[in-house]
Automatic annotation (TrEMBL), chain A:
GO MF: transmembrane transporter activity
The organism of origin for this protein: wastewater metagenome
Protein name: ABC transporter permease
Keyword Membrane set for record: yes
Example of a GO cellular component annotation carried by this entry: plasma membrane
TrEMBL record, chain B:
GO cellular component annotations of the record: plasma membrane
InterPro entries tied to this protein: ABC-Purine-Binding, Peripla_BP_I, PnrA-like
UniProt source species: wastewater metagenome
All copies of domain ABC transporter substrate-binding protein PnrA-like, residue ranges: 42-328
This protein's name: Purine-binding protein
């Protein structure tokens, strides 16, 4: 489908690809924040995940090993953060920033011997029958497996958060850790779990970049996407569905800017570069304009350390 | 440890004292630097990024190695990589100077002021700063005429394209990059008047994911040869995977592109570094501004892909020869901007000053230049 040289199908197909690292990292950040922990270390966890996954793939030649190692590495980074903020009750903002700075340096150091190694990307998976549907087929059903997996993870996170008892406990810990504690739940333990799962997802998001798109490792590969993921969670008013929508919107508009430039549309490239940020903020703010709901969605204990009493 | 520090402090003190004595002595003397011939010199290098496997700093380090190889035991070299532009740079440069370096290459634009500042304190040390415009009697500058290589690469692209659409992934709309796009376009159209160049600015030097998406977009829109003025090998890799052609920048990236990489426009610093080090050894160095192209060995093409047919190869080599001996100017008139205005008439050539300020696209660039 083409309008004046602009191919909507390739654009939308690329949108899913560009949104995927943000979806994964954003969902991870969502889990942590929903239990009341703000982890600004996403960028660092993504980088360490990206480089660890890349190294594992180069060494074992197995993509699955690469993704698994990236999740472990992300979780390991997150456990450092959880130790500082949950066990030692250090300031979450400062610890998160430190984690990012640490991750930037560590990933550069780890990746040095592997920098510039050329690897094969992940092949696209054509889902039988469905991928033959005109228009929708190429957009939705000719993606790489990680795109499908990230959507499945998103669905799982939504289901878990709003339709399971464990999800209810997770939300309770974020809203009122004291009540959760009084009911006999281990607040710190639950926060550890959420932060570690978040780290694993951030690591996977990083590995999506080093193993799938653009499948290479160079220092600083993530280039700020961790920060975008953190911002997405806030602008999506802590709703996982909106985090995903925001991530795809951001990816799609970034690519749209390139499409328009390539077609010679006379809009300054600087304006097109800032468009994803503006559009994502505007759309998510409009979606979350109900202030009462916004207040209800924001975890009440966010950034507050928990002291068990009684 | 403590001894090392003490030694360094003493060395700094003595160097400082000598420097002070020297500067008072030469205050009234000539405006050139007074160098004595030496048997052995220490040469320092400051790199802005990690050396890595390809790219700007990697090429400088290749130059350092080439110089070391050619001058043998007459030089000892030392380098510091990943030095941020700014206060850190000044500290690193000063450390190299007080460590006894006779010649220091500072290889990034942002080192300009730190270099000048440190050079004042060490009038006995020779400094060479890449891509800057501030000089002193012991500070020279050097810059590559990259556009000569871009022009030749454009010729290859113009010959190899079947769709007549070429793609250019660019970093920031500054004269250096605009010049590269224009030279590439003029090269392509010198052999194929139907060729046009589409440009996508990603507004980042370094974001491999964006660079790849931009390259994908250009190829989706019909470009069958893409090139880039950004760091990393993302564009070359993207083209190779779709069996399209790419022209790499900074370093030879055929490792990623195979025969899809038609060629690469590369910086080569070995000749220049060797020459400058030799001058310092002989005591004949003077501060100059060198803007060197293919003739001086600073810029060249990497080996051409085996997909490039022989007649194209010969044509490009002939043009290369003509650029070297000055018969061919990539920006020789007529130079017509996209809006139709004539920037250089037949028989004229754009001046260096005009090249340094270039802020328009030439005919054949399909995109529109973002305005400030």
């Amino acid at each position: 489908m083409e309008i004046a040289g602009f191919n909507i199908v390739t654009w939308l197909a690329a949108t899913l690809v560009m949104g995927t690292p943000l979806v994964l990292a954003g969902l991870g950040e969502f889990l942590a924040e929903k239990t009341g922990v703000l982890n600004l270390g996403t960028e660092g966890m993504m980088l360490v995940g990206a480089v660890s996954g890349f190294i594992a793939f180069v060494e074992t030649d197995s993509q699955i090993a690469g993704f698994a190692v990236s999740m472990l590495a992300g979780a390991a980074m997150a456990s450092l953060f959880a130790l500082l903020t949950q066990t030692f009750r250090a300031n979450q903002v400062a610890s998160g920033l430190a984690l990012t700075i640490f991750g930037v340096g560590l990933s550069a150091f780890m990746g040095r011997p592997y920098e510039g190694e050329g690897i094969q990307g992940l092949a696209k998976l054509h889902i039988p029958l469905l991928s033959d549907i005109p228009v929708l087929g190429p957009i939705l059903f000719q993606q790489d497996p990680m795109v499908y997996l990230s959507i499945a993870i998103g669905a799982a996170v939504i289901y878990f958060t709003y339709h399971t008892r464990a999800g209810l406990v997770m939300r309770a810990v974020g809203e009122s850790p004291e009540s959760a504690h009084a009911m006999g739940y281990r607040v710190i333990g639950i926060r550890y779990l959420a932060v570690l799962s978040g780290g694993a997802l951030a690591g996977l998001g990083g590995a999506y970049m080093s193993l799938v798109e653009p499948h290479l490792w160079v220092e600083g590969l993530v280039a700020g996407r961790g920060w975008i993921a953190v911002a997405l969670v806030v602008f999506a008013s802590w709703r996982p569905g909106r985090v995903m929508a925001g991530a795809y919107l951001f990816g799609g508009i970034t690519r749209l800017g390139f499409e328009l430039q390539g077609l010679g549309v006379p809009i300054p490239s600087q304006a097109l570069s800032s468009l994803p940020y503006i559009a994502t903020i505007v759309v998510l703010v409009i979606l979350s304009r109900d202030r009462t709901k916004l207040r209800l969605n924001r975890p009440a204990s966010l950034t507050k350390p928990f002291f068990a009493t009684g | 440890m403590r001894h090392g520090r003490l030694k360094r402090a003493l060395l700094a003190l003595t160097t400082g004292l000598t420097a002070a004595a020297f500067s008072t002595a030469t205050l009234a003397a000539s405006d050139g630097i007074d160098l004595k011939p030496k048997d052995h010199i220490k040469v320092g290098f400051v790199y802005v990024s990690p050396i890595g496997d390809a790219g700007w700093s990697y090429q400088h380090d290749q130059g350092r190695k080439a110089m070391e190889e050619r001058l043998g035991d007459k030089v000892t070299t030392q380098f510091v990589e990943n030095v941020p532009e700014g206060a850190d740079a000044e500290r690193v440069i000063r450390q190299l100077a007080s460590g006894g370096a006779d010649l220091i290459f500072t290889t990034s634009f942002g080192y300009m002021n730190p270099t000048i500042k440190v050079a004042k304190r060490f009038p006995n040390t020779v400094f060479e700063h890449a891509t800057g415009y501030k000089r002193a009697k012991n500070v020279g500058t050097y810059m590559p005429r990259l556009y000569e290589g871009r022009y030749l690469a454009g010729m290859i692209a113009g010959e190899m394209t079947e769709t007549n659409k070429l793609g250019f992934v660019a970093a920031f709309p500054i004269p250096e990059v605009v010049r590269a796009i224009n030279a590439f376009t003029r090269g392509a159209r010198s052999v194929n008047p139907d060729a046009t160049v589409n440009v996508i600015w990603i507004n980042a030097w370094y974001d491999p994911a964006k660079a790849r998406q931009a390259a994908e977009t250009l190829m989706d829109q019909g470009a069958d040869v893409v090139t880039h003025h950004t760091d990393s090998h993302a564009v070359v890799q993207a083209a190779a995977e779709r069996d399209k052609y790419a022209i790499a920048y900074h370093s030879d990236m055929s490792k990623y592109g195979g025969d899809s990489q038609l060629t690469a426009v590369v910086h080569q610093w070995g000749d220049f570094y060797t020459k400058r080090a030799r001058e310092v050894l002989n005591g004949t160095w003077t501060s100059r501004d060198v803007w060197g192209g293919i003739a001086s060995g600073m810029v060249d093409l990497a080996e051409l892909s085996s997909d490039v047919p022989d007649d194209v190869r010969q044509e490009v080599m002939k043009a290369r020869e003509a650029i070297v001996n000055g018969e061919l100017q990539p920006f020789g008139g007529p130079v017509v901007a996209k809006d139709g205005s004539v920037k250089a008439k037949e028989g004229e050539t754009l001046s260096d000053e005009a090249l340094l300020k270039m802020d328009y696209y030439v005919e054949g660039v399909a995109s529109k230049l973002p305005k400030k």
